[in-house]
Amino acid sequence: MMDQPGLQILTLDSAPADDHDVTAAWERARFTARGGTASEVRAAFGRAWSMVERLEKNERRELPFLRDLCADYSVALVHDGDIRRAVRVADAGLVDLPGDLALTFHRGDFARRLGDWDQAEALLTSCFKPRSVSTISADDARFRTIEPTFRLAQLQLARGMINDAWKQVDRALSFDDEHVPS
Prior knowledge:
This protein is mainly α. It contains ten helices and no strands. Helix 5 (83-96) packs antiparallel against helix 6, helix 7 (117-126) runs antiparallel to helix 9 and helix 9 (146-158) packs antiparallel against helix 10.
């Protein structure tokens, strides 16, 4: 199709950025995550996160996407090679959302990757503990079941605990289809 004079197609990438609209920055980051490079994704989530950091604590807690932003940004940081910053982002998220299952899982996985095995085991094991209904998201089943179980298996394997690792793998494989991430 030929371009028409005067016709401008507006995309999220070409839309002017509003330095104060954290929701727009979050949407832009999610859009970038669908096809951007690791550095582009990190930068997009970083812009949204920097806006969130400037908010008052009560304002941050009101953001319906705060948990997802913390989790997605910290994972993007890991994919881009900055696990220490990922830990700081996940920790900041846990200050605002104490006990959040997804953030606890990711923080435990980051501890495992850093070799802090005792902390990793404590955090990943805590994912199995009952939570109040108000702190559980609809997509948390995988963070209560298969995800921490496989990470514990990896942790036990790294510790040389082969039999315990196999038990965790068997446990993970026992979860039904509802608990397996798509």
